[in-house]
Amino acid sequence: VTGRRKVIIPENPFWKKPENLNLSVLESAWGPLPIKYQYLVGSPSSKMRFMSIGISSIYKDREEPLLVTVESIFSHCSPEELKKIVLVIYLANDNSELNVEIAEEIKVKFSEHIYEKRLLVIQSSTANYPPLWNSKEGQEDNSEDIVYTAKQNVDYAYLVNFCTNLSHYYLMLEDDIVCASNFVSIIQSYLHDTDGHWSTIAFSTLGSIGKLYHNADLTKLARFLLMFYRNMPVNHLFELFHKSQAQESLITFRPSLFQHIGRVSSFHEFETAVNDPEFEEDLGDSGDFLSASCFTSIPIVLNYPPENVCPPGKGVFWGKEVEANSFFTIVFGNPIIAQKIRIYTGSAEYAKDILYDGHVEEGRLKVHSEEGQTCLIFKKIGTFKDGRFELEDKRRSNDIECLRIQVTAPQTQWLRIRKINIWLKK
């Protein structure tokens, strides 16, 4: 028809070959966020580890616990466990020069772990952060606490985002904690025995400390934290996250594998006593250095002989077929006056391998017997309770030459002695 406008039918875009063949809707939606990071220490490994450990750290103008935390992480891992982890420290101070200074301290102290590519220290400019305050004047949510909480959420989000694809699992820690021995193997063993869906497992009862995530969930978690970063504290967001992933209740491993140290919790400017009552590892002073020999009538398990834990040993004794009248005797090289004694059995991983019924005796008149050295005269000084023996008496003044752990009833569980700590009269 004359005058009719010509209609142009475009090509069907669904049949047109895409120019970007690498485009992935899934990656675009859930891949790592394009955040700029700067490496201060270390470089990433090309090998994916079993677990990455993330710490976001802010200098609190007090005795800095970060180095203690890093030392605790590495010193509580066996050589095999160290091969399975990578520790990422995100220095979240606004002052870049301060971050560099702290990174240098870490570099000097932990050079071996940096060389093995199991320690990274990073930062990101706060210029890359979303607004931490409301731009509208007069808003009530511009208080110092609100801004501080918002920054904490963004700090965590940036840390989590960086750790994507470094490992199969991600463990969240803080910069003021200590660890239980062999915590990596304990976590690995627990995961092996855990069936069914989970989003978050807590290996501590304190806030964000000890939260474990799948690598596949890290980008979701980073986005989730950024989505609500001004709405609520990070601990509440962590709780809402696992619920959003169809995990209604938090799965908590006991006893706790991590404990807070000091009186200033991370991201808090006020002093408060924050401790995890579920943590059962031994903290603080481990007693005096003693010369001693140890003997036992309990059959030994594998390579866990008495000398492992015998003072000043730092290892573990493990025995089986524990019967009534079984004993574990400590014979001192020279007579001592013990003012404080602590003997701990069991461990976080083997919580049932404690001494259920037994007591401790002090001995005098050292002699040789078929089982080795012992004492002729023994006197009971206290009993075990929940696998532990503790005694402290500064008035004690008598020399002793032996200590004996005496089993008073048979038990089906093996016996694991992890600590024998003795403090002498000065």
UniProtKB/TrEMBL annotation:
Q: Which pathway?
A: Protein modification; protein glycosylation
Source superkingdom: Eukaryota
Enumerate the spans annotated as MGAT4 conserved region domain: 35-278
Give residue ranges for domain MGAT4 A/B/C C-terminal.
313-415
Keyword field = Glycosyltransferase, Transferase
- Is Transferase one of the keywords UniProt gives this record? yes
Coiled-coil intervals: none
State one molecular function term (GO): acetylglucosaminyltransferase activity
Concerning InterPro entries, the annotation shows:
Glyco_transf_54, MGAT4, MGAT4_A/B/C_C
Q: Which GO terms describe its biological process?
A: protein N-linked glycosylation
The protein in question is named Alpha-1,3-mannosyl-glycoprotein 4-beta-N-acetylglucosaminyltransferase C
